[in-house]
Amino acid sequence: MQAKHGNIYRRMPFYYGWVMVGAGTIGMLLSIPGQTIGVSVFTDFLIDALHLSRDQLSLAYMIGTLSSAAILSASGVLLDRWGSRRFGSIVAALLGLSLLVLSYIDGIVDAASRTLTLLPPGLTAMIIMSAGFFLLRFLGQGSLTLVSRNLPMRWFVKRRGMVSAIVGTFVSFGFNSAPAFFDRLIQAAGWQGAWRISGLIVLILGVSLYVILVRDNPESVGLKPDGEPADPGDELTRNLEKHTDAPGDDAADQVKAPDMSLSEAVKTARFWVYGLSVGLSSLYITGFTFHVVSIFAEAGIGRSIAVSVFIPVSIISVIVNALVSFASDFIRLKWILATLLSGLMISMIGINFLQPGFVFTAIIILGNGLAGGSFNSLTTLTWPRFFGTTHLGAISGFIMGILVAGSALGPIMLSASLSIAGGYGAAAAVLAGTAALLFLSGMILSEPAAPGKD
């Protein structure tokens, strides 16, 4: 059977890995309903429909997100065991069905409140909404993002940087266009209708995409990564996935990274330095996005300016992502890590000194753009380069858990800073100090040479 498939895919006029690039990109875009940028548009409608306060809905969101983070590592193990095709189709189906169910959340809460009379209606709504947020975050932000982001990385080795740049460009524009898209959809069909339409799109398109087009890796169809035809039985093909490019500082010297299991990866310092760095970015950027209007209001700046920062941020992010992703084929990843953490520190400094006028708003835009573009590259490229691809699902799943946990804690941390310290500067200062420590750690870490290389 493998030989038959191999003949089909070898006769194609293009390398089938490029189809996986497209599939991974579409899969990432289909995860938007479970991302903060997709959920936030529905916040006010849920508050009104479920008769919850903003604090109650935020708490439900945090509970659902943290619960998702707690089990995402197991999701990565399933990805390694089942493969991208089977895992992705199941996750897409479940996310689509979850969106359809959540479109009836007001009726579900009302029926539950009449049944569970011993519980206050607000508590019943919070419990049910926490479960709903868990489904969105686990299936959308977590699992579908996990499988879609890793899919192209299994098909490319030498061109991972270029592939990351391509995917990151489309995903960045798609994510930043999502609020306007959902807002128009809500105006046309109502918030319930918007979730139903989204659910049907994810269910039909997502399942079809993974069942019909997706293949787990090039070896399964008789190919090699990057498009070289291969004999599925030869030794080079069997061992190819155990090697990745880990270029030097000034030139792309081949450095092979051995496959590591999750238990082996967590024993390395670079796992935690890079993992905590992208986790810090997730925490800060989510908190900033969640409170952006309030952050600018504290500085005497209006809502229109606050929400307008995302457009220039997305432009800078796309440019930075393209540059660092292409450069990653020739440089060590610590320089991209430095860009990420420098961007975070720049933005955090901007928050501490924010005031009416262009300068500090521009500083925040620049910092967030640098961080956003670098984040996209690091979350895609780091794990296969350092730890191989055999256990990529488990390792990426663990990291995804850190990212999701950070996204849950960010809004709470910044809100606490406002309540306790009277502003967002205190939280920004603490986070900037953390970023500085990670920056220094990343600079002194050495990226490993090939096993047996002096």
Automatic annotation (TrEMBL):
Its source organism is Salinispira pacifica
Q: How does it sit in the membrane?
A: Multi-pass membrane protein
The beginning of the lineage is:
Bacteria, Pseudomonadati, Spirochaetota, Spirochaetia, Spirochaetales
The answer, when asked if Oxidoreductase is one of the entry's keywords, is no
Q: Which GO terms describe its cellular component?
A: membrane
Tell me the protein's name: Major facilitator superfamily (MFS) profile domain-containing protein
Alphabetic keyword roster:
Membrane, Transmembrane, Transmembrane helix, Transport
InterPro entries for the chain: MFS, MFS_dom, MFS_Riboflavin_Transporter, MFS_trans_sf
Domain Major facilitator superfamily (MFS) profile, chain residue ranges per copy: 19-450
Q: Name one GO molecular function term.
A: transmembrane transporter activity
Q: Residue ranges under compositional bias (Basic and acidic residues)? A: 235-246
Cell compartment(s), UniProt:
Membrane
Map out region (Disordered) in residue numbers: 223-254
Q: Where are the transmembrane segments?
A: 12-32, 59-79, 86-105, 117-140, 161-182, 194-214, 271-293, 305-324, 336-354, 360-383, 395-418, 424-445
Q: Which domain of life is it from?
A: Bacteria
